[in-house]
Amino acid sequence: MSLRAKRNKLPSLAPSLWPRLLCRAGALIAMTLAVSPAFADDAIKLAVGARGHWETAAAELGQKAGFFKRRGVALEILYTQGSGETQQAVISGSVGIGVGLGTTSVMAAFQKGAPLTVIGNASTGSSEFWYVRADSPVHSMKDATGKTIAYSTAGSSGNMEVLAFVKEYGIDARPVATGDTAATFTQVMSGQIDIGWSSPPFGIAAAQDGKIRIIGYGNDLPHFRDQTIRLIVANGPWLASHRDLAARFIQAYRDTLAWMYGDPAGLAAYAEFSGASAAIARQVRDRFYPEDGMRVDRISGLDAVMADGVAARYLAAPLSKQELDRLFQVPAPVK
Hints:
- The chain is an alpha/beta fold.
- The protein has two domains: 182 residues, D-Maltodextrin-Binding Protein, domain 2; 93 residues, D-Maltodextrin-Binding Protein, domain 2.
- 47% of the residues lie in helices and 18% in strands.
- It contains 16 helices and ten strands.
- Strands 2-1-3-10-4 form a five-stranded mixed beta sheet, sandwiched between helices.
- The longest helix is centred in the first third of the chain and has 26 residues.
- The protein is globular.
C-alpha cells in the first residue's frame, strides 16, 4: 500500500475537535515542565557515618516510617566509615548533606575555605566509650601510660576526647587512628591496640558477655558533656540552591527523632535496624543518647570546642563571630 493510501485510511477528526486537543496537549506539556524540577529537587544524596548507631539512624528510620516522604523528601543514603569520609563526600559535592561530622574537623575545613554549612546538631555530649580486652591489666584510663589508645579519624570528636583523657589524667599514652568500630574491635582483640574506642550499640553485647571491659566514657570528661561534638552539614553550593529542601529535610529529621524517643514503635524499629536486642536498644537510647543532646537545634559549647581545636593544632585560631554566623545556619522549624 502506498504512503498516500495509508494516510487516506487514517481516521479524520472534526475541525472543532482540534483546538480542544491542542489545548489539552499544551496543558499536559506545561504540567510536565512544572512538575519535573520539583521531583528532582525532592531527592537528596545523603552521606551517613556509622550505620547502626542511634545517633545516625534517624535518616533511614525516618525514611522507612514515612516522615521524610510527608515533607516531600526522598533520601539516597550512602553509608561511610565515619566522620572523615563523610566530610570529604560533602566537600566534594558528591552528596548534598552529611550526618555525623566532627565539629572540630568541620571548623578546621571551613577555616581553610571548604564549602561547608552546618544545618543541625547531630550529637551534643559524648556517646563514645573506651575498652580493653577482658585479660588486659588496664582497669582505667589512669593506667594507660605507655599504651595505645584508639580513636576513629583525625579531627573527630573521639580524637579530641582521647587528647583530653591524656591531658586530664596526665598519662603518656599514644593516640592511634583505627577507623570504625568494627575495625577497632578487631585490632583490640588481636592485640594490635591496647585500648579501643566504640559507640553504642557496637561493643555493648561484648561487654555484657565478658569479652571486653569498658574503662572510660567520653562524658567522664566534664567539659564534653555540653559540647556539640558532631554535626549535620550541607555542601555550600548545594544549599544555596536548595534551602527550602534543606529546611524540609531538617524538619523531617526533627519529626523522626520525636518518634524515636516518644513512640515504642520507634525504639522497636531501631532495634531491628541495628540488630540489637530490645534491651540493648533501650539502653543505647536512655544511657548514651539523652533526647536533649540529640535536638537538631541545640548548638552549644563551641568556645570549648574551638579551644580544644586550637590546643590540638587543628584550628589556626578560634572562629570569629562572623565566621560562626556563616558556618552555622540551622533552618527554622517548618509547620
